[in-house]
């Protein structure tokens, strides 16, 4: 695996391999390699708390050196293109680039570069490390995906998390359903749309999505009203009470409390929202390690063994 751009590019074997490595690192069963001679740059053209901070911790735990890069103090402000920024970082010695950008499939214009790219989210396209950490969290709970009933609720059309997870969880054998207002349905994804109230007591996982206000046009924003949305599509206490005893609640976060989920349920016993964040750091360690090993990185560990 040279890059991680889209869940569509991963085989189910690669998904299992990454999740197993992340779990082994988390349990202390796998000592990750050290990459003290390697450099990484994190390019976040969109805001982030979880993804950026967990990549930063993962990179430092792996011993990588960070190239200081912030869009608002870089030559992006002088009109530098994404390609020129990335080509420059490649030339100064970056061994891996982590990129979040508002442009869907931004990575198409970077194909000629010879530096691995990890997609930290592209517009409404894909968020592969989020999908992998979600898969890791589900695997910890159920040790399988086959036959699991998963309801993904909310802003499907604008959500890179919905797209990534639909593709990967379906490939792994889960039954993925959506619940969404008409304006936020996505016909390009072949999953059935359900009324949340007709299926809430049958699902193993209910995954809530953040309402993506920043991606809305005037046309679909006008259809949004918080209390209506919460009552029709949100996880209320009444719906939570109907969940199966083993069912879990997920959300990629940040959460709009009181919109996608009732405030008091964010840390309820069935919620795995903060577990997802914890797993994200281990999963990102596993991804970086896997990519640098694929690239044939010489590590201190290998050098010391010689
Ligand atoms: N889930 C997620 O991607 O969160 P951030 O936008 O805070 O990184």
Automatic annotation (TrEMBL):
<feature type="binding site">
    <location>
        <position position="210"/>
    </location>
    <ligand>
        <name>L-aspartate</name>
    </ligand>
</feature>
<comment type="subunit">
    <text>Heterododecamer (2C3:3R2) of six catalytic PyrB chains organized as two trimers (C3), and six regulatory PyrI chains organized as three dimers (R2).</text>
</comment>
<comment type="function">
    <text>Catalyzes the condensation of carbamoyl phosphate and aspartate to form carbamoyl aspartate and inorganic phosphate, the committed step in the de novo pyrimidine nucleotide biosynthesis pathway.</text>
</comment>
<dbReference type="GO" id="GO:0016597">
    <property type="term" value="F:amino acid binding"/>
</dbReference>
<protein>
    <recommendedName>
        <fullName>Aspartate carbamoyltransferase</fullName>
        <ecNumber>2.1.3.2</ecNumber>
    </recommendedName>
</protein>
<feature type="domain" description="Aspartate/ornithine carbamoyltransferase Asp/Orn-binding">
    <location>
        <begin position="146"/>
        <end position="290"/>
    </location>
</feature>
<keyword id="KW-0665">Pyrimidine biosynthesis</keyword>
<dbReference type="GO" id="GO:0006207">
    <property type="term" value="P:'de novo' pyrimidine nucleobase biosynthetic process"/>
</dbReference>
<dbReference type="InterPro" id="IPR036901">
    <property type="entry name" value="Asp/Orn_carbamoylTrfase_sf"/>
</dbReference>
<dbReference type="GO" id="GO:0006520">
    <property type="term" value="P:amino acid metabolic process"/>
</dbReference>
<comment type="similarity">
    <text>Belongs to the aspartate/ornithine carbamoyltransferase superfamily. ATCase family.</text>
</comment>
<dbReference type="Pfam" id="PF00185">
    <property type="entry name" value="OTCace"/>
</dbReference>
<feature type="domain" description="Aspartate/ornithine carbamoyltransferase carbamoyl-P binding">
    <location>
        <begin position="3"/>
        <end position="140"/>
    </location>
</feature>
<dbReference type="InterPro" id="IPR006131">
    <property type="entry name" value="Asp_carbamoyltransf_Asp/Orn-bd"/>
</dbReference>
<feature type="binding site">
    <location>
        <position position="160"/>
    </location>
    <ligand>
        <name>L-aspartate</name>
    </ligand>
</feature>
<comment type="pathway">
    <text>Pyrimidine metabolism; UMP biosynthesis via de novo pathway; (S)-dihydroorotate from bicarbonate: step 2/3.</text>
</comment>
<feature type="binding site">
    <location>
        <position position="50"/>
    </location>
    <ligand>
        <name>carbamoyl phosphate</name>
    </ligand>
</feature>
<dbReference type="Pfam" id="PF02729">
    <property type="entry name" value="OTCace_N"/>
</dbReference>
<dbReference type="InterPro" id="IPR002082">
    <property type="entry name" value="Asp_carbamoyltransf"/>
</dbReference>
<feature type="binding site">
    <location>
        <position position="130"/>
    </location>
    <ligand>
        <name>carbamoyl phosphate</name>
    </ligand>
</feature>
<feature type="binding site">
    <location>
        <position position="127"/>
    </location>
    <ligand>
        <name>carbamoyl phosphate</name>
    </ligand>
</feature>
<dbReference type="GO" id="GO:0004070">
    <property type="term" value="F:aspartate carbamoyltransferase activity"/>
</dbReference>
<feature type="binding site">
    <location>
        <position position="51"/>
    </location>
    <ligand>
        <name>carbamoyl phosphate</name>
    </ligand>
</feature>
<dbReference type="GO" id="GO:0044205">
    <property type="term" value="P:'de novo' UMP biosynthetic process"/>
</dbReference>
<feature type="binding site">
    <location>
        <position position="254"/>
    </location>
    <ligand>
        <name>carbamoyl phosphate</name>
    </ligand>
</feature>
<feature type="binding site">
    <location>
        <position position="100"/>
    </location>
    <ligand>
        <name>carbamoyl phosphate</name>
    </ligand>
</feature>
<feature type="binding site">
    <location>
        <position position="78"/>
    </location>
    <ligand>
        <name>L-aspartate</name>
    </ligand>
</feature>
<dbReference type="InterPro" id="IPR006132">
    <property type="entry name" value="Asp/Orn_carbamoyltranf_P-bd"/>
</dbReference>
<keyword id="KW-0808">Transferase</keyword>
<feature type="binding site">
    <location>
        <position position="253"/>
    </location>
    <ligand>
        <name>carbamoyl phosphate</name>
    </ligand>
</feature>
<dbReference type="InterPro" id="IPR006130">
    <property type="entry name" value="Asp/Orn_carbamoylTrfase"/>
</dbReference>
<dbReference type="GO" id="GO:0005829">
    <property type="term" value="C:cytosol"/>
</dbReference>
């Amino acid at each position: 695996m040279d890059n991680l751009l889209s869940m569509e590019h991963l085989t189910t074997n690669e998904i299992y391999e990454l999740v197993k490595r992340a779990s082994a690192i988390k349990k202390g069963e796998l000592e990750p390699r050290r990459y003290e001679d390697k450099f990484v740059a994190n390019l976040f053209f969109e805001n982030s708390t979880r993804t950026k901070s967990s990549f930063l911790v993962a990179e430092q735990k792996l011993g990588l050196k960070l190239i200081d890069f912030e869009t608002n103090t870089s030559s992006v402000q002088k009109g530098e293109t994404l390609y020129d920024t990335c080509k420059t970082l490649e030339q100064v010695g970056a061994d891996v680039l982590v990129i979040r950008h508002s442009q869907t499939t931004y990575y198409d214009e970077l194909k000629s570069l010879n530096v691995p790219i990890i997609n930290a989210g592209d517009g409404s396209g894909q968020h592969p490390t989020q999908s992998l950490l979600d898969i890791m969290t589900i695997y910890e709970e159920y040790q399988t995906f086959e036959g699991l009933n998963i309801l993904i609720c909310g802003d499907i059309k604008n959500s890179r998390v919905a797209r990534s997870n639909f593709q990967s969880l379906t490939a792994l054998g889960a039954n993925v359903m959506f619940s969404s207002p008409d304006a936020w349905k996505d016909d390009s994804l072949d999953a059935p749309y359900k009324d949340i109230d007709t299926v809430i007591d049958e699902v193993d996982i209910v995954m809530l999505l953040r309402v993506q206000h920043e991606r809305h046009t005037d046309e679909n924003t006008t259809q949004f009203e918080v209390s209506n949305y919460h009552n029709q599509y949100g996880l209320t206490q009444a719906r939570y009470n109907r969940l199966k005893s083993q069912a879990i609640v997920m959300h990629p976060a940040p959460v709009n409390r009181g919109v996608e989920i009732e405030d008091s349920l964010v840390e309820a016993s069935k919620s795995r929202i903060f577990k997802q964040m914890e797993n994200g750091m281990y999963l990102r360690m596993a991804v970086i390690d896997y990519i640098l090993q694929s690239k044939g990185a010489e590590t201190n560990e290998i050098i010391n063994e010689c």
